[in-house]
Amino acid sequence: MPSSVRRLTMAVITNSLSLKHTLSLGCPQTKFLTRRPSSTSISFRRCYASYANENREYVIVGGGNAAGYAARTFVEHGVADGRLCIVTKEGVAPYERPALTKAYLFPPEKKPARLPGFHTCVGSGGERQTPEWYKEKGIEMLYEDPVENIDIEKQTLTTSSGKLLKYGSLIIATGCTSSRFPDKIGGNLSGVHYIRDVADADSLVSSLEKAKKVVVVGGGYIGMEIAAAAVAWKLDTT
Ligand SMILES: Cc1cc2nc3c(=O)[nH]c(=O)nc-3n(C[C@H](O)[C@H](O)[C@H](O)COP(=O)(O)OP(=O)(O)OC[C@H]3O[C@@H](n4cnc5c(N)ncnc54)[C@H](O)[C@@H]3O)c2cc1C
């Protein structure tokens, strides 16, 4: 994972999760994949097989690109089947987020991209990891169930639906969020869009279908891609 992505991920850890004890994760994926199994992980493996209890050997929090590519690495190392659980806020399996401001926003005549067409890891020419792929590989997916609390000492986490999971090793891959305008200056008005996930992109597409004029705030590559999409929809764009 590039260091810039890692930095963003770490920033979100401190902002979005209430941690009872300090976490210090450098590059957790590579660290624990090369580590020799501890006695804790062996005992987790023994009691884990059918998810019949709260014990999970490896847990990834977050269901973005990092989680999807990490899952592929777990499979390559033969440590996924019956041992890995991904807990995500989103309702879909990891996908190539960059597509959201590219082919996803194409006007109808240009055949826009839709899931399951761009699940991770197609962006790197890898296998398309659909929800079925995770099932086949024995990876447990908990969708639409954000982690709300982690207790590092007890090695447990709780989700918004009230699930309590005990983990052997934990990867936090919660990514980042868009910076939003405050509500008092109109940041929550209808017609104001942010783009980070599929739900945001769907909402933007439904506005593009009706819009006459589009104003893009932010001139980075995401802003420029949205401006290009709006032009493709033949909309007056600033
Ligand atoms: C529209 C857009 C276009 C982009 N285009 C490009 C590009 O062209 N090239 C490029 O290199 N990069 C691009 N990026 C950036 C790239 O997508 C990110 O670097 C990448 O998504 C980071 O992956 P990640 O898995 O670390 O985080 P994310 O993709 O942000 O995934 C984090 C996941 O964690 C989930 N989550 C958050 N909190 C919790 C919680 N408490 N419990 C459970 N789940 C949680 C989120 O819902 C999300 O599913 C783009 C980003 C966006 C938004």
UniProtKB/TrEMBL annotation:
Lineage per the UniProt record: Eukaryota, Viridiplantae, Streptophyta, Embryophyta, Tracheophyta
Any single GO CC term annotated in Swiss-Prot or TrEMBL for this entry: cytoplasm
Domain FAD/NAD(P)-binding span(s) in chain numbering: 57-232
Alphabetized SUPFAM superfamilies for the sequence: FAD/NAD(P)-binding domain
Keyword Ribonucleoprotein attributed: no
Keywords (A to Z) from UniProt: FAD, Flavoprotein, Oxidoreductase
Name assigned to this protein: Monodehydroascorbate reductase
Domain of life of the organism encoding this protein: Eukaryota
